């Protein structure tokens, strides 16, 4: 058995097929001046071919009703259409005398590094998109077939060093029972596509492409993140039974995913989705989301030399608002800094960036940039139910300054006779301990709260969740974290204001009982988690989980609270037998 990262749920059993991507030989140059024009033409032709290929994939996916696949490929098209992106490739040819494929590789490596260094797992996953787009262009430059998946002719488990989103989008679901890769993570677009198409997947399996041979029997456990190679008879029999149970359970979840998320005694919880792009919104609706609890807008800014314009942002926000209408869409203003950087914003080096100039602190310092985003959000609010959400608020002064700018933008739009929702709500992300403790103060000028448990937990515990030596402290079940969450909920409810949770904790069905018991009104999560959390909610008694939460708040350690949840009769509310 090899352990990796569970990327898409499910269990599959089949024969291995090793996918060997052809190695690309890069010409290093330097180019003679006489060759520059020819290389520019090669790049232009390759870009055109890449666009045509992506349009074909989008058309095919749209006809098949595969909205997630279509939208992800449309994102790739949008990146290819970015003039600054392609201009950097041309500059490599013209000014650094690189061959076309080498110039593209250099740009790819630059932007892959920007995303790969980020702490946010979702944003790290975007590095694979840049690599995929550039690899497509490179293959078209040198004449290598873009899609080698046509070599698969019978059902198999696909084994690869890595699969790009384009590779995954073109997998034949009738032939690919599951896939295992050495690279990738659970929030990559390859994982998102696999989840949407129901293909079990495990990523991060060390050396699996070299440890297997074509025809080996493989069991893929997409829940645990395991691959069993040539299993013994007992293991095979166990997984055959589990696969049958899993198929039956998935059919039930799919059948019930649009039922109201309501406890057995009638308490309703709203389930929303965390998204970072238009395509994520499509997947959210397919899985039963009743709106967006967190729209990460930083992806619009990433990998750009120039700031996105008001019109560019407006078009994106308007599309999502219209897609979700009448459901709410909470748009988080730019959350850059810390681990996230972009060429279009000069963020100086800091010894401790997570406690430094980031998120709302940057927005308030860069007022023109902030106003551009707020104006775009306001304009889009005329086309749907949009809410504005400020990240990393630590004190009332910041909230007041942000709201002052919001009012200023409203006055400008009104003077220009541009429509917007005059009653748009403006809320606060509760992700600093300061905001949680002062929730009663902030509620005087915020209309809603949303709890970001990822940052809140690491700030409360003074422990970097990416540091293996102290990551054990980053447990959202810590009594101190739960007490702050409960305080924010109570202060919100005193003013009859809704409160949401949009951190990873919200999408874990094992946590659903205590979160509902604490009194959260809304839970926002990745689209693929919604059916399982809905199922967990429908098994609960609100009265019983309220008592469970009260007891948890009296306990001494995260381990004690985890034991309490495990011992409850709701402990089977999880995505699988595990």
3D architecture notes:
With 578 residues, this protein is an alpha/beta fold. 47% of the residues lie in helices and 13% in strands. The strands form two sheets. Strands 1-8-7-3-4-5-6-2 form an eight-stranded mixed sheet. Strands 9-10-11-12-13-14-15-16 form an eight-stranded parallel β-barrel, surrounded by six helices. Helix 21 packs across helix 23 (542-552). The longest helix is centred in the first third of the chain and has 28 residues, at 36-63. It is globular, with a radius of gyration of 24 Å. Mean pLDDT is 88; it is low at 573-578.
Query: What class, by secondary structure content?
Result: alpha/beta
CATH topological fold name of the largest domain: TIM Barrel
Question: Helicity, in percent?
Answer: 40-55%
Beta-strand fraction estimate:
5-15%
Largest sheet: 8 strands, mixed
What is the count of distinct domains? 3
Summarize the topology:
Elements: E1 2-3, E2 5-8, E3 11-19, H1 36-63, H2 67-80, H3 83-94, H4 100-116, H5 121-124, H6 126-142, E4 156-160, H7 165-169, E5 176-181, H8 189-197, E6 201-203, H9 208-211, E7 217-221, E8 226-229, H10 233-256, E9 270-275, H11 278-286, E10 292-296, H12 298-301, H13 310-324, E11 328-332, H14 360-365, H15 367-380, E12 385-390, H16 396-415, E13 425-430, H17 433-437, H18 439-442, E14 449-451, H19 453-460, H20 479-494, E15 499-501, H21 512-518, E16 522-525, H22 530-538, H23 542-552, H24 558-567
Parallel strand pairs: 3-4, 4-5, 5-6, 9-10, 9-16, 10-11, 11-12, 12-13, 13-14, 14-15, 15-16
Antiparallel strand pairs: 1-8, 2-6, 3-7, 7-8
